[in-house]
Design goal:
Length: 282
Amino acid sequence: MIKVVNTKKELQEVLLPYREAGKTIGLVPTMGALHEGHASLVRRSVSENDVTVVSDFVNPTQFNDKNDLMNYPRCLQADCSLLEKVGAQFVFAPSVEEMYPEPDTRTFDFTPLDKVMEGPNRPGHFNGVAQIVSKLFYAVEPDRAYFGEKDFQQLAIIREMVRQLDLKVQIVGCPIVREEDGMALSSRNMLLSKAERKLAANISLYLFESRRFARRNTLLATRQWVIDSINACQGLEVEYYEIVDGRTLQPVDNWDASDYIVGCVTVHCGKVRLIDNIKYKE
Ligand code: PAF
């Protein structure tokens, strides 16, 4: 039976026997509204650790848009039934006051990782992510923590945060889980109408197609082709498409510039902002 824990104190209490027995603890940080993508992270944690904690907390400090925060789907009950099926032992679902008894004034600098793509477009977002993820790491003290590669920039920034804070936790990046039509799973997908959901499948379609296009074309031409192809779908609007070095996240301008090249896109579909990425070289 899965146990829901609401406070840091109770979390310490339930995890103590595992720590004392030298057991390993896996943490899957989430904002709830769980789907098969989260389930794959939890399965991985369950298979690699003695105990798995899933945090389910919509973190206000990472939202720079009040409406986005208000509209973010919340469904703890449904989340718990999914987590029970995949074998997590604990759900940590704190209140905002529990995580932020006072305002968190810490400012992180992840230059150059946070100065590109989502960084300038969502001021304060990664600072908020670093605040909550570091708090979760202090509260759970996990051996390993699991994050999806869909949020590619977030994953790079969390690795950098762990390096800067000299934390012991091992960060495990897990592959994107996709629907049958290629659409990357995301909690935001449930905010799309049926027609928008169908339209949004073009995002991954053109990303995958671009791998083929890239074989005979320059990197800059490939980038432009993806932007033009997605924008040509009425109802979709590309915010950015950057082809970057997978480690530094800095844009590259030719296919020989790095041995790890990833294309990262953000697209608006109606009121919903969708992100996805594709590896060209790894
Ligand atoms: O990726 C997410 O769902 C969130 O950014 C995270 C890592 C749980 C922090 O709130």
